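Record type: ASSEMBLY
Status: queued
Input:
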Amino acid sequence: MLPFDILEYQDRIKQTKQKMAERSIDVLLITDPANMYYLSGYDAWSFYVHQMLVLIIDESQPLWIGRYMDANGARATTWIYDENVIAYPDEYVHSSTHHPMQFMAEILEQIGQGNRRIGVEMDHYYFTAKAYQTLVSCLPNATFVSGDLLVNQVRMIKSDQEIEYMRGAAKIAENAMLHGVNSIFRGVRECDVAAQISYHSIAGTDQYGGDYPSIVPMLPSGERTGMPHLTWSERAFMEGDSIIIELAGCYKRYHVPLARTVNIGPASEKLDRIAPIVIEGIEKVLDAVKPGITCSEIEEIWRNSIKKYGFEKEARLGYSVGLNYPPDWGEHTASIRRDDHTVLLPNMTFHFIPALWFDHYGIEISETIRVTDTGCETFTDFPRELIIRDGYATPSQDGKIS
Amino acid sequence: MLPFDILEYQDRIKQTKQKMAERSIDVLLITDPANMYYLSGYDAWSFYVHQMLVLIIDESQPLWIGRYMDANGARATTWIYDENVIAYPDEYVHSSTHHPMQFMAEILEQIGQGNRRIGVEMDHYYFTAKAYQTLVSCLPNATFVSGDLLVNQVRMIKSDQEIEYMRGAAKIAENAMLHGVNSIFRGVRECDVAAQISYHSIAGTDQYGGDYPSIVPMLPSGERTGMPHLTWSERAFMEGDSIIIELAGCYKRYHVPLARTVNIGPASEKLDRIAPIVIEGIEKVLDAVKPGITCSEIEEIWRNSIKKYGFEKEARLGYSVGLNYPPDWGEHTASIRRDDHTVLLPNMTFHFIPALWFDHYGIEISETIRVTDTGCETFTDFPRELIIRDGYATPSQDGKIS
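Status: finished
Output:
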């Protein structure tokens, strides 16, 4: 039932411990659900309560500590021994008198780790200010140090099995994009198209049943195409609308994002002008990416490519991508931007999304890429153009399913 | 475009300031996206980067501080003045050298709030340990105090407009449950049914276009029904399987969750025995809920109802529900359990989910309720029974859409 061979987990643990040793960390408390899954296999929507994996430098097995009702799921989805699954009672959940970190600190004390150097994921969503404060006050003899992005850095270079899962995610992404685009007609609501995309993302294909992407489909239309993170509304599409679709296929928690821009009827002059400029910039970058190039150098290629047409871009161009849980599919390590000097290596994977947003319109055309031994390849195969939709829906094409 | 009248926002601000005054908080930093939406209207999937609403006790308008690319969305979706929308540059995003809280602290200093009593949402997902640590170190003259659940407590009693939105969410939930149940056949994969449910949750109805629920549909089957938070797999259903469906309809970010248990073919003796016991317990509770009763008293009614059959339940029975964002639709205030003495008042809303989980099976039958002036009412109208599915799928009923 495990998505990876036990030897692959052992190798991940080994690499993580090497990084712990470099940072003089004795005990790493892992609260990022992607890192928990990466090291143990634990996969559940239980990250809305406090939980963690405890990796001790001189112990071979991690501990899982979480909510009592989730312990059976931890036993079922991980490779770790059942006795290493430790559960706190429900009175600790969303309580004003009990905090789960009190329980966890007590366990750490009991197993002799209360006076060690403890690494914590300081800037992760699921390690709150109160979680940290509670741990620090309950473990006065421990020294707390940052374990931020430690496991994430191990995750940057994918194994062959991880790449296989991303290929599955790519098939799902292509299929979801195709059905999303084909459901766009005048008079169809944004929510109907978002529903089509979600259906195909989750059902997946016959070969690859879909997992839930860490972000819902983004689908701004009209003036909202200049506002990238607004989610869909009940607005019905109109003649002339442009629509940005950003989605991801997800397979066994591995993501391949994909963005395209669609126009109902002929596009505006502005959009018509900008689309080939963006596509040219993407092509130049894809030609240049290979092992040894840095994120900063990629950004420079893009910047020069659009500068000659008088454009510049405020935001980063992309980021390391793969395994994740809500609320983000990015891995929070390398970003493709000027001040990031990460050197690209084979089997690193990036979502390259050089979107341009203006006050009243925007464009997104993206590719998820794998760095190969000699260059790069895109995961998906989807026409890289501004997509024009025309015609009204017939009754059987109204974007609805029964 | 605002989902609520401006007077309703003013009233929410006023109630929040009253609670700030009670806790001697001068400045409340609101990082929970549900609380940001509640007070300002801001609605975007941008909570994967640091952002906040700043409510100052002696200023009438809050400030929104977030990422540059999200500022247009903040101007478009909120009632606050454009000049109160302040954006940080992209170099602060997922960076090892810049933290958004450095920028935010600088703004607070510049507007003369650097030496005040500042309330922060200490245990919220989107207020990390590092966010807190950075703020504290950048604002040495401020006093930090807990603003935990302050706005959440205001949110507990719903307005008539909020209840209307929940009624819309209830229609969506009923429809999604119906289609989910009707797509269950032997040989259909869990992911196909999850896709059906997601489609109908997001498309919604003609009247109520769906919003994304804060949790994906839960759909454990077979032995996994004892593991409530495992998400769907590619497993195909088999004769005899039981399947637990927990979903929510969501309309304008307001949730109505609903859970039912389904069996393919005749249910096991165990499940057949437990179902009427759970339903009887639910009915006793629904008969008893009215203004003035406490969460603890409700738990006692349930406990006594199942105790006579020899059962007891470890986890809480339910929680305050309504407005939320991923990863949870619960409001983290009142829980229906023994040590929670919250007094129920009209227009409080709860998800009452007295699920029972055993090592190899489980049952969930739930209702979302509104406390009325004299009792309570359920939002959805869906048969409260163990649902038996029979027969194989015909080619047109294979759980797939084209």
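Annotation: Chain B touches chain A through 87 residues (CB under 8 Å).
Annotation: The longest strand of chain B covers residues 254-264.
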